[in-house]
Amino acid sequence: MQFQTLASLLFATASVFSQSAKAQDTSCAPGNVGDWFSMAVYPQIHNETYDSTFDMDYYSQQQMPWIYSLFKPFGMKGYTITTLERSAPYSVLTLMYFDTAEQFEEALAAHGEEIFDRVPLFSSEFPPHYIGEVTNTTI
Ligand SMILES: *[C@@H]1O[C@H](CO)[C@@H](O)[C@H](O)[C@H]1NC(C)=O
After folding, report:
1. Residue 30: predicted pLDDT
2. What is the rounded CA–CA span in Å between residue 132 and residue 139?
3. pLDDT for position 7
4. Coil, strand or helix at 95
5. Mean pLDDT of the region 31-51
6. Which atom of ligand 1 is found nearest the CA of 47?
7. Which residues line ligand 1 (CB under 6 A)?
8. Which candidate in 37, 40, 77, 106 could, as Cys together with 30 as Cys, close a disulfide (CB 3.0–4.6 Å)?
9. How close is the Cα of 51 to the center of ligand 1, in Å?
10. What does UniProt give as the signal peptide span (predicted)?
11. Nearest-angstrom CA–CA distance, 81 and 35
12. Are 44 and 125 within 8 A, CB to CB?
């Protein structure tokens, strides 16, 4: 009984690891030089009377996978979510990779409104976003 529990726990852990390894092991990895990206930044304000809130579980498990499913047909290649320290002006910085800036513009024109409608479900602040190009990576 105890062994079975341990074995199933180990198995569950192993499949979590193999899943995340698989997710990163793509032959055409996003974020290569020449890729374009949309950078969304979520402002954070913390003072005596105000505290920005951000639900990373919802964002990483619901919002971004949903956006990816909407944007993939327009050429979205993948994304990176990063979190910044509390003293930074932004709490979260997300990069969404495409081959061209136009692909992102088309995806946003088609789905931007429904995506921004859901921001209040996980963030107290609305994210400005900017388009940029990957110019160098050394990893
Ligand atoms: C705290 O931040 C809020 C939101 O930006 C602002 O309205 C308020 O004036 C700030 N309060 C202080 C004491 O700085």
Report:
1. 77
2. 19
3. 46
4. strand
5. 96
6. 1
7. 45, 47-50
8. 77
9. 9
10. 1-23
11. 17
12. yes
Half-sphere exposure of 94 (CA within 13 A, CB side): 19
Within 13 A of 42's CA, how many CA atoms are on the CB side? 24
User: From atom 5 of ligand 1, which residue's Cα is the shortest distance away?
Assistant: 45
Mutation pick for ligand 1 pocket among 44, 50, 124, 125 (CB with most ligand atoms within 8 Å): 50
Q: Which two tokens stand for residue 88?
A: 């930074």
- What does the chain come to in residues? 139
Q: d(Cα 14, Cα 12) in Å, to the nearest integer?
A: 5
Quick check: helix, strand or coil at residue 86? coil
Residue 59 CB neighbour total at 10 angstroms: 21
Dist. CA 47 → ligand 1 center (Å): 6
**Separation of CA 88 and ligand 1 centre (Å):** 16
Q: Whose CA is nearest to atom 9 of ligand 1?
A: 49
Statement: residue 29 has pLDDT above 90: no
Question: Under a CB-based contact definition with an 8 Å cutoff, are residues 64 and 81 in contact?
Answer: yes
Q: Rounded to whole angstroms, how far apart are CA atoms 98 and 62?
A: 20
